[in-house]
Amino acid sequence: MILNRSARFYIGIIATLIVITVVAIKLFGSAVASKFQEANEDVSTSCYFGDRPVDPDAPERAREESKRHIQAARSELLEHAAGGGAPLVHIPPHTPTPPPPARLALDPPARAIAHHSFTRAAHEPTSTFSIDVNTASYTASREAILRHMLPHPDSVRPEEFLNFFEYDYNPPTSGEDFSIQLDMLPSHFGSTETPRQLVRVGIRGADVPVEAMKASNLVFLVDVSGSMGLDTRLPAAKIAMRTLVERLRPDDTIAIQTYASGTHTILEPTPVADRDRILRAIDGLIAKGTTRGDAGIINAYELARRGFIKEGNNRVLIFSDGDFNVGPPGEDLAELIRSYRNDHITVTTVAMGLGSKDDVMEKLARDTNGNYFYIDSPNEAERIFSEKIVGTLQVLAADVKIQVEFNPDFITGYRLIGYEKRAMANEDFDNDEVDAAELGPGHTVTAFYEVELTESAPTDGDALARVDVRYKKELGAESLLVSRALTPDRIHASFDKAPAQLRFAATVAAFAESLRVPRSSSQTPPFDELLATAARSAYEGDPHQVELATLITRAHDLWVGR
User: Fold this and answer.
1) DSSP for 7-60?
2) For residue range 206-247, what is the model confidence (pLDDT) as tens digits?
3) CA nearest 387: which of 258, 250, 284, 243?
4) By percentage, how much of the chain surpasses pLDDT 70?
5) Distance from first CA to last CA of the chain, Å, rounded?
6) CB-based burial of residue 76 (10 Å sphere; 0-12 exposed, 13-18 middle, 19+ buried)?
7) What is the Cα 562 distance to its own chain's centre?
8) What gap in Å lies between CA 442 and CA 6, rounded to an integer?
9) Which end of the chain offers a freer environment for a tag, N or C, measured as fewer CB atoms within 10 Å?
């Protein structure tokens, strides 16, 4: 076939382009490939790429399918054996997979804990619990609400809402480790059918200035697994550690242990005088790998032992999202840390990232009598590790237990709000072998009982309740006992005329109780009343108290639109 001139022209252009392309690939291809390889290597060392999203219901469906197959096989074998077939073959029963740890503020606890119910004082007048200075449940719920999500009702712990805030408790007198304050006022948000009262038990630890704080030997145990690369978890942990380092004194020491697939000592105990070296070690942390927490914990304790300061603050601070997906599960980790309890090395767990494994982090702190925080912002890091540094690091009173004995002549029944995980047997109050939580300098602890009164009115000499507080001046010491009585002069006849800070504390407790109402309930929490009382009782000079009104407003909007 003879091509015309126009066709030959276009074929010539195409052939020329092909030749140019081949030459370009040969000349520049290797250089371009090299550049891409370098870029990929650089990214792979600094970033963690999570697994592709999967169907969250797939594992459960797979387990159900497995159970159906086993049951069908067992039925077939039974029928076969009944018909004179081969002997019955044993098929082991299905072993359920344990539920994953609950995510902070988003999931219910792996093991549901029933709320306290009313107890008849004539039947059992005494109630006992350990104090709690943790605040993680409040700060995580705050972040959830600000991100337009209601926290899961079963994730809300009222005691951690109450103990986030500071109240105007009287400071202890000279020589006292803490003060105790008792009050009673009408329950503004409780049952309308049966009028009830709120009894408040408040404790305030003695203040200790930073200059008088004990010498500190601290170990940062940092989770650098891949999950810590999500969101801003590791960067937030770095901010928290830097904040703490900047507040320590030159003679205090810092060590850093990391864990992921393995564990590494990044920094041996180093005086804070060498601050630049410590900060460089913090800034150099990178997240990647799985999470092997047990080896890291063992090595962190060994570092704390090496730098141990007699009568000092010896503490391991664990910065993690609690995602221990390799090695011992949460219960075994808690048991591992409990074995170190007698070494007088205390623990702080710091949850990083909304959705952190709350069960693991809270249990590690509770079982070691440590404290537990969730950092949702640089401001929260500043509050915990700068403003409250002494209370976070130092133990003012160890194994602090509270026992309240109500007088059945004046109180028919009572219910403790929150503290479900801190409840204790009454006989354990006097047993020094049974541990409880720590109180730090400047810490405040608040607990509310909702009570029903008898028709008898107390006179000036009567006590409606007696509150005993047992504690140890230091770890391992013999316990001491302090007692106070709730007398008629501490009773406020009207909610509106009660002191503003007492009303604010009652509002915080009621807000936590409102967030515990199941979403399916037809009962609407009293958000409007909560907002009104918060606005009238919050201390204007405290931004945290003022912020509560914003959270109540947003929670109301989320509830209405649920």
Assistant:
1) HHHHHHHHHHHHHHHHHHHHHHHHHHHHHHHHHHHHHHHH---PPPP--TTHHH
2) 999 999 999 999 999 999 988 888 878 899 999 999 999 999
3) 243
4) 77
5) 76
6) exposed
7) 25
8) 93
9) N
